[in-house]
Specification:
71% of the residues lie in helices and 0% in strands. The chain has helices spanning 4-33, 40-47, 51-58, 61-74, 85-91, 96-114, 118-123, 131-152, 163-173, 176-185, 190-205. Helix 4 runs antiparallel to helix 6. The protein is elongated, with a radius of gyration of 20 Å.
């Protein structure tokens, strides 16, 4: 006879799988039709669940938007990006340019999910739902300052580059707006974007002519 603990574990796994399925289908529908034009009933139909299940998990469409945004940032790994393996591996590099190039490559996978949602966030920017993206970008801006400081421990910034200017460049060039403009709208291949952003940041932030520069 299965243990109660085993039954609870299976039930929890099914619940998590259902929640993840709802989020994935909501993401696809939001990208295709926008937030307001997508109904909870349509999301339920696409996900193969009762509409009551969608409401049970997320209560409102704005709560579902928050869950969708979190998925675009984290993917299937609930660990915050700075603690995910790709970021850890990048920060193990001995110098800042090498670490930065790996960070850009890792960020690209995240931006491929976030960038298609940009029109959705713009459309609701004046609504309470718009705070989901705005708050996320505020946190990301602070993260860029912390990243500049961490990278500076490996390689100093070029003499004419201020800390805040370095954070500004990191914030914009590794952000979803830049990715969307060049990869989605202009048709750049993702590896081309990764190479250009990495080259641009390394050139503008660090003294590439210094002895020993890699």
């Amino acid at each position: 006879m299965p243990s109660v603990k085993g039954q609870v574990s299976k039930s929890s796994a099914r619940g998590q799988a259902t929640r993840a399925r709802i989020v994935r289908h909501a993401y696809a529908l939001f990208c295709e039709f926008g937030l307001r034009a997508t109904t909870m009933e349509t999301i339920a139909e696409r996900a193969g669940v009762a509409v009551q299940t969608v409401y049970f998990n997320f209560r409102t469409k704005d709560h579902l938007l928050q869950a969708v945004h979190e998925w675009t940032i984290l993917g299937d790994d609930p660990t915050p990006p700075p603690l995910q393996q790709w970021h850890i591996d990048a920060m193990r590099e001995p110098d800042a340019p090498s670490a930065l190039r790996k960070i850009v490559a890792g960020v690209a996978a995240m931006l491929a999910r976030v960038a298609p949602m940009i029109p959705v966030y713009h459309a609701v920017s004046q609504d309470p739902a718009g705070a989901v993206y705005q708050n996320s970008e505020t946190r990301r801006r602070a993260d860029m300052t912390a990243l500049v400081d961490a990278l500076s421990q490996k390689t100093p910034l070029a003499p004419d580059v201020r800390r805040d200017r370095a954070a500004d460049l990191l914030f914009f060039l590794t952000g979803p707006e830049c990715y969307r403009s060049l990869v989605i709208s202009a048709g750049w291949a993702e590896p081309e974007w990764v190479r250009w952003v990495g080259d641009t940041l390394c050139r503008d932030l660090y003294d590439t002519t210094a002895p020993g520069h890699r």
